[in-house]
């Protein structure tokens, strides 16, 4: 009896071991010691000429991980059915920087560093460049063999209800706290007015704005994104602090200054609202840290559906299968 139980434990640990990612900090430290610094240098240099780049790279990691796992599937160019072209990935970018880093790494240590890991490292560097927390990124992901637009259908959408957003995160093994904290990534970067149209002009059945927008914020939003204006015009998602990675985004969300509808929706549910509020209590400075929690959540996000062993490989270039 005891032996059977022990055997079961060993068997289940073995099964977990092969189904879960074998990621670790410093995966490349022996096999390609300069991997992390090469990526960091390329990201830093590219950000000098494009200040928007850190935000773009952080978003790229999210979109990679939520479809088919963190496996570089979003990087593939394979005609009109590749994942990259799916509507939920609209505006996702940073591909050139990932490709530059890959090219440099293929020169130094060919066939060693995966594109999926480059995306994860670049996101980490992007957060640091934006004055956010400096964290150690786990690596060891392999690149996937699949890239299909249909697989992106279940991406979280800006106009999903809070219930749907929660479900979509749970489906990826992320809880309500991860949803709140990772939405905090909107502390940097911008959105196109395209994503604001429904919130500003078509929210209620008879039209009109989302009533959760602070009346003091509405005129500014509708001036930046007029009803018949340019849907490609952009505005910071963290009003007043869009270049700096900080907790200001959660303060804005609490005060009705959320820009994205999905961020505002965090206040529509007692659990997620409670999590937002927990950063602003009298004792909060002692008990919680947005930065530390963000690190924990993004490391968890970086483990979604990771491919190891023969489920993946190391691409030679990131935008096509070997
Ligand atoms: C909760 C579900 C989420 C929804 C519905 C959502 C939606 C959006 C939308 C609509 C934009 C504007 C895109 C554009 O106009 O180019 C955006 C931008 C962005 N998102 Fe999210 N997002 C979510 C979660 C996340 C997560 C988990 C991360 C990263 C951890 C993230 C990081 C970013 C960043 C950094 C930008 C700015 C991109 C830029 O400046 O180009 N988002 N998001
Ligand atoms: C590439 O696209 C073609 C045409 O749509 C498709 O048949 C094929 O399965 C795709 N390749 C991969 C590996 O996804
Ligand atoms: C939800 O937002 C998308 C843009 O992300 C828009 O294309 C779509 O029409 C919206 N759906 C609804 C039901 O409002």
TrEMBL record:
GO BP terms: hydrogen peroxide catabolic process; response to oxidative stress
Keyword presence, Ion transport: no
Binding annotation for heme b: 186
Keywords: Calcium, Disulfide bond, Heme, Hydrogen peroxide, Iron, Metal-binding, Oxidoreductase, Peroxidase, Secreted, Signal
Pfam families recorded: peroxidase
GO cellular component terms attached to this protein's record: extracellular region
Binding-site residues, Ca(2+) 1: 64, 67, 69, 71, 73, 83
Bridged cysteine pairs (disulfide): 32-109, 65-70, 115-318, 193-225
Domain of life where this protein originates: Eukaryota
Keyword Heme: yes
Domain Plant heme peroxidase family profile: 22-322
Active-site residues, Swiss-Prot/TrEMBL: 63
Binding-site list for Ca(2+) 2: 187, 238, 246
Compartments reported by the entry: Secreted
Enzyme class of the recorded protein, top EC level: oxidoreductase
Entry cofactors: Ca(2+); heme b
InterPro entries: Haem_peroxidase, Haem_peroxidase_sf, Peroxidase_pln, Peroxidases_heam-ligand_BS, Secretory_peroxidase
Purpose: Removal of H(2)O(2), oxidation of toxic reductants, biosynthesis and degradation of lignin, suberization, auxin catabolism, response to environmental stresses such as wounding, pathogen attack and oxidative stress. These functions might be dependent on each isozyme/isoform in each plant tissue.
Family assignment from sequence similarity: Belongs to the peroxidase family. Ascorbate peroxidase subfamily.
Name this polypeptide is given: Peroxidase
Source organism: Deinandra increscens subsp. villosa
């Amino acid at each position: 009896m005891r032996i059977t139980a022990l055997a079961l434990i060993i068997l289940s640990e073995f099964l977990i071991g092969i189904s879960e990612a074998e990621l670790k900090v410093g995966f490349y430290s022996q096999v390609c010691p300069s991997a992390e610094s090469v990526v960091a240098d390329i990201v830093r240099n590219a950000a000098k000429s494009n200040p928007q780049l850190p935000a773009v790279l952080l978003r790229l990691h999210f979109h990679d991980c939520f479809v088919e796992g963190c496996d570089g599937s979003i990087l593939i160019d394979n005609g009109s059915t590749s994942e990259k072209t799916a509507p939920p990935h609209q505006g996702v970018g940073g591909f050139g920087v990932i490709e530059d880093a890959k090219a440099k790494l293929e020169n130094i240590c060919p066939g060693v560093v995966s594109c999926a890991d480059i995306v994860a490292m670049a996101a980490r560097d992007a957060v640091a460049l934006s004055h956010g927390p400096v964290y150690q990124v786990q690596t060891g992901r392999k690149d996937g063999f699949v890239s299909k637009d249909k697989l992106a259908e279940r991406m979280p959408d800006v106009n999903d209800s809070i219930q749907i957003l929660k479900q979509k995160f749970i489906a990826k093994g992320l809880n309500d706290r991860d949803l709140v904290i990772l939405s905090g990534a909107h502390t940097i970067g911008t959105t196109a007015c395209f994503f604001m149209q429904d919130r500003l002009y078509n929210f209620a059945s008879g039209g009109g704005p989302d009533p959760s927008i602070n009346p003091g914020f509405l005129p500014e939003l509708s001036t930046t994104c007029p009803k018949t204006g340019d849907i490609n015009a952009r505005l910071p998602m963290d009003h007043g602090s869009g270049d700096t990675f900080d907790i200001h985004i959660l303060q804005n969300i609490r005060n009705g200054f959320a820009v994205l509808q999905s961020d505002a929706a965090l206040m529509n549910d007692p659990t997620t609202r409670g999590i937002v509020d927990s950063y602003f209590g009298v004792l909060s400075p002692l008990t919680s840290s947005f930065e530390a929690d963000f690190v924990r959540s993004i490391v968890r996000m970086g483990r979604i559906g990771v491919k190891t062993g023969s489920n993946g490989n190391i691409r030679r270039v990131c935008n096509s299968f070997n």
